[in-house]
Amino acid sequence: EQVLAGETHYTDELTVRYEEKxxxxxxxxxxxxxxxxAYPTVTSFSYTFDLERxxxxxxxxxxxxxxTFRATVTDLILDQIMGMG
Length: 85
Prior knowledge:
By secondary structure, this protein is an alpha+beta fold. It has helices spanning 59-62, 66-83; strands at residues 2-5, 8-21, 24-34, 41-50, 55-56.
């Protein structure tokens, strides 16, 4: 959707894609927002559902070693944050 306010365009778009394997469905979202600043904002997020169970699957549930999984994800996030500066 684009709204003209003065001479500034505002955009908010959401793209959704999914993949289904057996009783598990993964839904990925990408949101693009431009509100007149120098750069747009792009946000990605996803959810995985177990259709048989009728519930969201927490990534920790499918990790072989939850503590290593948490530590690895934490390290990846910190690396990305450090790379922004």
